[in-house]
Design a protein that fits this description.
There is one protein chain. The protein is an alpha+beta fold and 495 residues long. The protein has 4 domains: 3-94, GIY-YIG endonuclease (3-Layer(aba) Sandwich); 98-201, no CATH class; 271-440, Nucleotidyltransferase, domain 5 (2-Layer Sandwich), CATH 3.30.420.340; 444-494, 5' to 3' exonuclease, C-terminal subdomain (DNA polymerase, domain 1, Orthogonal Bundle). It is built from 19 helices and 13 strands. The strands form 3 sheets. Strands 7, 8, 9, 10, 11, 12 and 13 form a 7-stranded mixed sheet that branches. The chain is flat and about 80 Å long. The N and C termini lie far apart (78 Å).
Amino acid sequence: MDIREKIENLPHTPGVYRYLDSTGTVIYVGKAKDIRRRVSQYFVSPDQLNRKTRALVEKIADLQYTLVETEEDALLLENNLIKQLQPHYNILLKDDKTYPWICIRNERFPRVLLTRRYVKDGSQYYGPYASVQHARRILDLVGSLYKMRICSYSLTEENIACGKVKSCLNFHLNRCAAPCEGLFSEEEYDAQIEEIKALLSGRVRNLIASCKEKMLRASSELRFEDAQLWKERLDLLEAHHERQKVVGHGILDMETYKLLQEKKLPRRIERSEKVMEQLKTDLGMAELPKHIECFDNSNTQGTNPVAACVVFRDALPSKKDYRHFLIKTVVGANDYASMKEVVNRRYSRMLAEGEQLPQLIVIDGGKGQLKSALEALAELGIREKVFVVGLAERLEEVVIPGEPVSLFLDKNSSSLRVLMHIRDEAHRFGITHHRKRRTFSQVDSALRSITGVGPVMEQKLLRHFGSVKRIKDATLEEVASVAGPSLAARIRNNL
C-alpha cells in the first residue's frame, strides 16, 4: 500500500504520524487533532509548500501512525518519540527540556517536586504532563493530603540528632511534620511516600477505600472531628480520581503504552462502529448513536436526592462529561418529577451554551420516568431532535415512545450490552454520589441539627475551629466571634 492509499484509510481522530525515508529511518514526527486532515496537507502541489516542507516531502518513502484517544495524548507521545528518535526534520523538543514531570527525589525524607528535566539520578519521575497547571494541581493535592517537607536541607541522622536544622513556618502551618527535628520518623514519612507513589501511578482506589473505612469507623465511634478530616481527604481523592487519566510513569512506559495502542485502537474503533450500527438498526434510529446520554435518580426515603448523567461517545464511556445533579425543586421521593427536572436542566444548559445534543438519550426506568423526560424535552422544543428510550431493569425491556409494546433485545446482543452498560454506569455514578452526600450529612449532623446553622455557617465554623470538638471546647466569646452572640449560645447549648 502506497502513502496516498494509507492517507485515504486514516481516520479523523487524534494521533501521531511518523515519516520514514527510503532506508526506513524516521525523519519527522508530528501530532494532529485530526490525523487524516493533517497528513493530507503535506501531499499537495509543491507550490503550496514552503522550502523546508518541500525538502521533507521529497524524502518521504513511508508513513507510520499511532492513534490516541485525546489531543493531549498526541502531544505527550510526540514529545517522547522526538526525544527517542531525534528525527532530522524536527527542530523543537530534541533537547532534554520537556513537559513537566513530578519527581520524588532520591534522598532521605524525599521531597516531591515539579521539574522539566529528566535526570537519571535514582529519583522517580511521573508524567510527563501536557499542562503545567495539571501537574501543579496534583502537587497541591499531595500537599493537602500529606505533610511533606519542601526544604533542601540534608536530613542525615547526624544533622537531626545534633539539632542543626530547625522547623520552619510550614511546620507551624501544619503543612510539614518536621522530620528535621525528629518529630516524624523515617518509617512514617516513607509510608506517606508510598501512598503518593500510588496516587501518582493512578492506583487511587485502595487509597479511597482506606479513607472511607477510617471515616466511617470514626463516625460510628462518634469521633466526628476525625471523621470530618477523613471525609475532607476522601473528597480530595475522589475528585482527583474522577478527572484522572493515567498517561504513563516514565519515558519508556509512556512510549511502550502508546505504541501498543497502534494495533489495539483501530480494532477498538472498528468494534465501536459495529456496535453503534447494530444499536441504530435495533432501535430503528435515523442517525448513528455516536453520542449517548443516560439519566438515573438516587434517594433514600426521599433524603439527599441526587441524579446522575453519564455520557458515552462511540459506544465508550466519556467520564470527563459525566455530571451530578442535586434535586432542587422536588420535595420527597418523586422519581418522575426529579427526572423531569434534571433532563430540563441538562438540555436547557446545553442549548444555552450551543453544545451538540446527543443522538440517543436513555432513561433508567419504565414508562413513568420516560414520560417525564419527554415532557421536559417537549417544553424545550427538542423532543423531535433526539431519540429517547427507557430501560426498565426488571426484564431489561426497552421502552420506545409511540410503540405499543416494549422491545426485548437478545440477551447476548451488543445493543443490549451497551444499553445495560450505560444504565449500570449511571446507576454506579449516581449511587456513589448519593452515598457520599448521605455520609456527609451523618458526619456533620452535630452542627446541621442546630437551628440556624446552615451549610455556609457550618463551613465557616469548621474552617475557623478545625473540628466539632474544638467548637465544643471553645468559649462562648470565641464562638460568638464567628457566629454572633445569639447563634453562639444556641450552638453551645446543643453541642
